[in-house]
Amino acid sequence: MNSLNIFVNKYFAVFVLIVAFIAYLLPDVFVGITGYITILLGIIMFGMGLTLNLSDFRIVAKKPLPVLTGVVAQFVIMPLAAFIIALVLQLPPEIAAGLVLVGACPGGTASNVMVYLAKGDLPVSVAMTTVSTLLAPLLTPIALLVFANEWLPVDPLAMFLSIFQVIIVPIALGLMIKQLFPRTVEKSVQALPIVSMAAIIAIVAGVVGANQENIAATGLLVFAAVVLHNGFGLALGYVTAKLVGLDETKRRAVSIEVGMQNSGLGTQLATVHFTPLAALPSAVFSVWHNISGPLLVSWWGRKSQKKEEAVREKEWKHYK
Questions:
Q1: pLDDT at 114 over 70
Q2: Rounded CA gap, 118 and 28, in Å?
Q3: Do 156 and 145 touch, CB atoms closer than 8 A?
Q4: 263-273 and 122-147 are packed helices; what angle lies between their axes, rounded to 10 degrees?
Q5: CB of 233 closer than 8 Å to CB of 259
Q6: 170 three-state secondary structure
Q7: How far apart are CA 30 and CA 215, in angstroms?
Q8: What pTM did the predictor assign?
Q9: Which of 172, 92, 107, 113 is nearest to 139 (CA)?
């Protein structure tokens, strides 16, 4: 199962691109999935609840600065960056609101995998994902009300209830099941990444199928906006962590946590509270951040390798 997880993680972006392309060619086959996005997201969040540990919360209590930095950056940098990008690119109202929406979502669980591969601080990454997710019912509607209300009407109470239902309830159920049946959960938890990825792929396929004509008309514009948005998140997350004095491993964790969003939640909220077109930035984000994340990990890896080689060369010259 571990080898299968590694394979799926490695080629996840490829799978998403292939399915998205098929959904674009055959939209009628996949458009019906949009009616099940809430259920699919609930499955993902339930799986997250099964993987949570009390140690995730102890980290916050013992060393709150890294997690606090990441969470504040998450809910300030990303919605604000989306707002600015939408104004500069003069995005249509629905797409602008959708970009702000995905920016106002908490970090996604895929970020933990990227932080691990980047040799970042994994416990801090997991704690950030957990805290930002639990705060999402409150902070996501507020961010939307501030930054997206001029494009589409935002009902913060309805959105709070929606996020609570699709995030907090499934996570709570997952935690409860883990406490009641720890051995069973321990045996099955290895399959959760594959289940979550399959759910995300299905969500993307449904949104692409529902927006085939919109993609043909605005696809390049949405892609440019998402690439800029994700890039700002990764860069400014790293800079913010550096400014508050965090070490390199925590900078990488904050960078990835801020830049990689729970785009599944963005898709669900856009579909329910806005329009299918508003869900398009979240769907594109699902594809792109699973490309940019590995690219950033590779760049950091090469950078670390060059640094290690320089140190070894210096030590060798000193020895000679």
A1: yes
A2: 39
A3: yes
A4: 20
A5: yes
A6: helix
A7: 15
A8: 0.82
A9: 107
The gap between the terminal CA atoms of the chain, to the nearest Å, is: 48
Higher pLDDT, 313 or 51: 51
DSSP 61: H
Element (H, E) at 29: helix 27-30
Question: Using an 8 Å Cβ cutoff, are 273 and 144 in contact?
Answer: no
DSSP label at residue 260: S
Q: In the structure encoding, which two tokens stand for residue 263, read together?
A: 């785009």
Q: Which residue has the tokens 């990444």?
A: 193
Read off the amino acid at residue 219: G
Band (pLDDT 50/70/90 cuts) for residue 304 is: low
| DSSP strands (E only) in the chain | none
Cα–Cα distance, 304 to 138 (Å, whole number): 39
Residue the block writes with tokens 């009407």: 153
DSSP letters of 267-291?
HHHHHHHS-TGGGHHHHHHHHHHHH
Q: 77 by DSSP, 3-state: which?
A: helix
HSE of 244, CA atoms in CB hemisphere, 13 A: 18
